[in-house]
Amino acid sequence: MAKTIMIVDDSASLRLVVAIALKGAGYDVIEGSDGKDALGKLTGQKVHLIISDVNMPNMDGIAFVSAVKQLPAYRFTPVIMLTTESQESKKREGQAAGAKAWVLKPFKPDQLLTAVQKLILP
């Protein structure tokens, strides 16, 4: 059975690039256009991993990850932050919120897939 990954980014083109890479590797994909939109789509279904941008309108990635970690069904869902933010302070903020990995944009799809495979439990 395919594992499900949620992509959260305000850039439709970036979501598309990530979705193509993930679907090509055999994953199912759910997309959210920002933190608020993505939270509304977390309705109890199994999500094996979340890939989220940091800088988004309505609810940024750090606030989104914090909110996800409050939901019992998603408390242990691993999160990769996919972002242009490279400052250590932002990374620490992300880790404190619950992010497990930090991938910088622009990214190589195989680099992202390697991070995904490390975090998705068999």
Automatic annotation (TrEMBL):
<protein>
    <submittedName>
        <fullName>Chemotaxis protein CheY</fullName>
    </submittedName>
</protein>
<dbReference type="Pfam" id="PF00072">
    <property type="entry name" value="Response_reg"/>
</dbReference>
<feature type="modified residue" description="4-aspartylphosphate">
    <location>
        <position position="53"/>
    </location>
</feature>
<dbReference type="InterPro" id="IPR050595">
    <property type="entry name" value="Bact_response_regulator"/>
</dbReference>
<dbReference type="InterPro" id="IPR001789">
    <property type="entry name" value="Sig_transdc_resp-reg_receiver"/>
</dbReference>
<dbReference type="GO" id="GO:0000160">
    <property type="term" value="P:phosphorelay signal transduction system"/>
</dbReference>
<keyword id="KW-0597">Phosphoprotein</keyword>
<dbReference type="InterPro" id="IPR011006">
    <property type="entry name" value="CheY-like_superfamily"/>
</dbReference>
<feature type="domain" description="Response regulatory">
    <location>
        <begin position="4"/>
        <end position="120"/>
    </location>
</feature>
